[in-house]
Amino acid sequence: QITLEESGPTLVKPTQTLTLTCNFSGFSLSTSGLGVGWIRQPPGKALEWLALIYWTGDKRYNPSLKNRLTVARDSSKNQVFLTLANMDPVDTGTYYCAHRGGGDSLLDYFDYWGQGALVTVSS
Amino acid sequence: SYELTQPPSVSVSPGQTARVTCSGDALGNQYAHWYQQKPGQAPVMVIYKDTERPSGIPERFSGSTSGTTVTLTISGVQAEDEADYYCQSPDSTGFYPVVFGGGTRLTVL
Fold it and tell me: When comparing pLDDT for A30 and A113, which is higher?
Protein backbone atom coordinates (compact mmCIF):
# COMPACT_ATOMS: atom_id res chain seq x y z
CA GLN A 1 0.00 0.00 0.00
CA ILE A 2 1.47 3.29 -1.13
CA THR A 3 1.10 6.27 1.18
CA LEU A 4 2.65 9.73 1.23
CA GLU A 5 2.51 12.44 3.87
CA GLU A 6 3.77 16.00 3.72
CA SER A 7 5.15 17.83 6.74
CA GLY A 8 6.65 21.22 7.41
CA PRO A 9 5.87 24.69 8.71
CA THR A 10 2.35 26.02 8.38
CA LEU A 11 3.47 29.66 8.50
CA VAL A 12 6.53 31.26 6.95
CA LYS A 13 7.52 34.90 6.65
CA PRO A 14 8.18 36.65 3.35
CA THR A 15 11.75 36.16 2.06
CA GLN A 16 12.21 33.01 4.15
CA THR A 17 12.94 29.60 2.67
CA LEU A 18 10.30 26.89 2.91
CA THR A 19 11.39 23.31 3.47
CA LEU A 20 8.85 20.51 3.21
CA THR A 21 9.33 16.81 3.77
CA CYS A 22 7.45 14.01 2.07
CA ASN A 23 7.50 10.77 4.04
CA PHE A 24 6.38 7.84 1.96
CA SER A 25 5.87 4.11 2.31
CA GLY A 26 4.98 1.20 0.09
CA PHE A 27 7.71 1.83 -2.47
CA SER A 28 11.40 2.62 -2.74
CA LEU A 29 12.83 5.50 -4.69
CA SER A 30 15.70 3.21 -5.59
CA THR A 31 13.33 1.10 -7.70
CA SER A 32 13.54 1.59 -11.43
CA GLY A 33 10.75 3.71 -12.89
CA LEU A 34 9.64 5.42 -9.72
CA GLY A 35 9.67 9.04 -8.66
CA VAL A 36 8.10 11.63 -6.39
CA GLY A 37 6.63 14.90 -7.51
CA TRP A 38 5.58 18.10 -5.79
CA ILE A 39 2.47 20.00 -6.78
CA ARG A 40 0.91 23.04 -5.12
CA GLN A 41 -2.50 24.70 -5.14
CA PRO A 42 -3.22 28.27 -4.04
CA PRO A 43 -6.57 28.64 -2.27
CA GLY A 44 -9.39 28.37 -4.79
CA LYS A 45 -7.00 28.01 -7.72
CA ALA A 46 -5.63 25.34 -10.02
CA LEU A 47 -2.92 22.77 -9.48
CA GLU A 48 0.63 23.84 -10.33
CA TRP A 49 3.47 21.36 -10.78
CA LEU A 50 6.70 22.27 -9.01
CA ALA A 51 9.29 19.50 -9.23
CA LEU A 52 9.99 15.82 -9.82
CA ILE A 53 12.79 13.58 -8.61
CA TYR A 54 13.33 10.22 -10.30
CA TRP A 55 14.79 6.89 -9.19
CA THR A 56 17.97 7.79 -11.06
CA GLY A 57 18.41 10.94 -9.00
CA ASP A 58 17.51 13.11 -11.97
CA LYS A 59 15.46 16.18 -11.14
CA ARG A 60 13.06 18.28 -13.14
CA TYR A 61 11.68 21.68 -12.18
CA ASN A 62 8.93 23.98 -13.31
CA PRO A 63 10.86 26.45 -15.47
CA SER A 64 8.81 29.32 -14.04
CA LEU A 65 10.14 28.62 -10.54
CA LYS A 66 13.38 26.80 -11.26
CA ASN A 67 15.70 29.39 -9.72
CA ARG A 68 13.88 29.11 -6.38
CA LEU A 69 13.29 25.36 -6.15
CA THR A 70 15.38 22.46 -4.93
CA VAL A 71 14.26 18.85 -4.62
CA ALA A 72 16.29 16.17 -2.87
CA ARG A 73 15.87 12.67 -1.51
CA ASP A 74 17.01 10.39 1.26
CA SER A 75 16.18 6.99 -0.16
CA SER A 76 17.34 5.20 2.98
CA LYS A 77 14.67 7.02 4.99
CA ASN A 78 11.99 7.07 2.28
CA GLN A 79 11.94 10.84 2.28
CA VAL A 80 11.86 13.54 -0.36
CA PHE A 81 12.45 17.21 0.40
CA LEU A 82 11.36 20.38 -1.33
CA THR A 83 12.83 23.79 -0.68
CA LEU A 84 11.36 26.99 -2.08
CA ALA A 85 13.43 30.08 -1.52
CA ASN A 86 12.39 33.70 -1.11
CA MET A 87 8.81 32.98 -0.13
CA ASP A 88 6.12 35.51 -1.00
CA PRO A 89 2.44 35.73 -0.03
CA VAL A 90 1.53 34.46 -3.52
CA ASP A 91 3.22 31.18 -2.56
CA THR A 92 0.48 30.55 -0.01
CA GLY A 93 -1.32 27.31 -0.70
CA THR A 94 -1.51 23.56 -0.19
CA TYR A 95 1.61 21.65 -1.16
CA TYR A 96 1.23 18.03 -2.23
CA CYS A 97 3.75 15.30 -2.81
CA ALA A 98 2.73 12.48 -5.13
CA HIS A 99 3.97 9.13 -6.41
CA ARG A 100 5.00 9.17 -10.04
CA GLY A 101 3.37 6.57 -12.21
CA GLY A 102 4.59 5.80 -15.68
CA GLY A 103 7.23 3.27 -14.71
CA ASP A 104 10.15 3.06 -17.08
CA SER A 105 8.22 4.95 -19.73
CA LEU A 106 8.73 8.65 -20.33
CA LEU A 107 5.27 9.33 -18.97
CA ASP A 108 4.91 11.36 -15.80
CA TYR A 109 1.62 11.14 -14.00
CA PHE A 110 0.68 10.94 -10.35
CA ASP A 111 -1.25 7.93 -9.15
CA TYR A 112 -0.97 8.39 -5.39
CA TRP A 113 -1.09 11.69 -3.52
CA GLY A 114 -0.49 12.85 0.02
CA GLN A 115 -3.20 14.79 1.79
CA GLY A 116 -1.33 18.04 1.38
CA ALA A 117 0.25 20.61 3.68
CA LEU A 118 -1.18 24.11 3.91
CA VAL A 119 1.50 26.77 3.98
CA THR A 120 0.71 30.42 4.65
CA VAL A 121 3.15 33.18 3.85
CA SER A 122 2.62 36.21 6.04
CA SER A 123 4.61 38.58 8.17
CA SER B 1 4.91 28.73 -21.29
CA TYR B 2 2.66 25.87 -22.35
CA GLU B 3 -1.05 25.93 -21.54
CA LEU B 4 -3.83 23.37 -21.36
CA THR B 5 -7.25 24.96 -21.74
CA GLN B 6 -10.34 23.65 -19.96
CA PRO B 7 -13.82 25.15 -19.64
CA PRO B 8 -14.28 26.67 -16.18
CA SER B 9 -17.52 24.84 -15.55
CA VAL B 10 -19.80 22.09 -16.79
CA SER B 11 -23.27 21.34 -15.43
CA VAL B 12 -25.35 18.22 -15.92
CA SER B 13 -28.33 16.55 -14.31
CA PRO B 14 -27.98 13.21 -12.56
CA GLY B 15 -27.93 10.30 -14.98
CA GLN B 16 -26.82 12.43 -17.91
CA THR B 17 -23.42 12.39 -19.60
CA ALA B 18 -20.80 14.99 -18.72
CA ARG B 19 -17.95 15.85 -21.04
CA VAL B 20 -14.94 17.86 -19.94
CA THR B 21 -12.53 18.96 -22.64
CA CYS B 22 -8.86 19.90 -22.51
CA SER B 23 -7.08 21.55 -25.41
CA GLY B 24 -3.38 21.99 -26.01
CA ASP B 25 -1.08 22.19 -29.01
CA ALA B 26 0.93 19.12 -28.02
CA LEU B 27 -2.00 16.86 -27.21
CA GLY B 28 -1.90 15.36 -30.67
CA ASN B 29 1.35 13.62 -29.78
CA GLN B 30 1.44 13.57 -25.98
CA TYR B 31 -0.64 11.54 -23.56
CA ALA B 32 -3.02 13.26 -21.15
CA HIS B 33 -4.09 12.26 -17.69
CA TRP B 34 -7.12 13.32 -15.63
CA TYR B 35 -7.62 13.98 -11.94
CA GLN B 36 -10.72 14.45 -9.82
CA GLN B 37 -10.53 16.72 -6.78
CA LYS B 38 -13.36 17.06 -4.30
CA PRO B 39 -13.45 19.99 -1.86
CA GLY B 40 -10.86 19.69 0.88
CA GLN B 41 -9.36 16.54 -0.59
CA ALA B 42 -6.26 15.61 -2.55
CA PRO B 43 -6.61 14.90 -6.26
CA VAL B 44 -7.34 11.36 -7.44
CA MET B 45 -6.25 10.10 -10.84
CA VAL B 46 -9.25 8.89 -12.84
CA ILE B 47 -7.75 8.45 -16.33
CA TYR B 48 -4.16 8.03 -17.52
CA LYS B 49 -2.61 7.69 -20.97
CA ASP B 50 -5.68 9.31 -22.56
CA THR B 51 -8.00 6.35 -22.09
CA GLU B 52 -6.73 4.02 -19.35
CA ARG B 53 -8.73 3.75 -16.13
CA PRO B 54 -6.91 2.94 -12.87
CA SER B 55 -8.21 0.12 -10.77
CA GLY B 56 -10.99 1.21 -8.46
CA ILE B 57 -12.24 3.97 -10.75
CA PRO B 58 -15.85 3.38 -11.86
CA GLU B 59 -16.44 2.36 -15.47
CA ARG B 60 -18.57 5.45 -16.05
CA PHE B 61 -15.30 7.41 -16.33
CA SER B 62 -13.70 7.25 -19.75
CA GLY B 63 -11.25 9.25 -21.83
CA SER B 64 -10.88 9.96 -25.52
CA THR B 65 -8.75 12.05 -27.82
CA SER B 66 -9.23 13.82 -31.11
CA GLY B 67 -6.56 15.99 -32.62
CA THR B 68 -5.32 18.45 -30.01
CA THR B 69 -8.27 17.94 -27.67
CA VAL B 70 -8.76 15.27 -25.05
CA THR B 71 -12.09 14.62 -23.38
CA LEU B 72 -13.07 13.14 -20.05
CA THR B 73 -16.54 11.60 -20.24
CA ILE B 74 -18.61 10.65 -17.24
CA SER B 75 -21.61 8.55 -18.22
CA GLY B 76 -24.60 8.35 -15.92
CA VAL B 77 -23.34 11.15 -13.69
CA GLN B 78 -23.96 10.72 -9.99
CA ALA B 79 -24.11 13.36 -7.28
CA GLU B 80 -20.79 12.10 -5.91
CA ASP B 81 -19.08 13.04 -9.19
CA GLU B 82 -19.45 16.74 -8.41
CA ALA B 83 -15.84 17.92 -8.21
CA ASP B 84 -13.07 19.79 -9.97
CA TYR B 85 -11.38 17.96 -12.83
CA TYR B 86 -7.87 18.66 -14.09
CA CYS B 87 -6.08 17.44 -17.17
CA GLN B 88 -2.29 17.03 -17.19
CA SER B 89 0.17 16.59 -20.02
CA PRO B 90 3.65 17.74 -21.09
CA ASP B 91 4.55 20.15 -23.84
CA SER B 92 6.08 18.81 -27.03
CA THR B 93 9.66 19.83 -26.24
CA GLY B 94 10.03 18.42 -22.74
CA PHE B 95 10.79 21.87 -21.39
CA TYR B 96 7.55 21.63 -19.43
CA PRO B 97 7.34 17.94 -18.51
CA VAL B 98 4.24 18.38 -16.34
CA VAL B 99 1.50 20.92 -17.02
CA PHE B 100 -1.95 21.04 -15.47
CA GLY B 101 -5.02 22.55 -17.05
CA GLY B 102 -6.91 25.30 -15.28
CA GLY B 103 -9.54 22.89 -14.00
CA THR B 104 -13.24 22.40 -14.66
CA ARG B 105 -15.88 22.50 -11.95
CA LEU B 106 -18.49 19.82 -12.60
CA THR B 107 -21.83 20.66 -11.04
CA VAL B 108 -24.52 18.01 -10.73
CA LEU B 109 -27.82 19.84 -10.85
Answer: A113
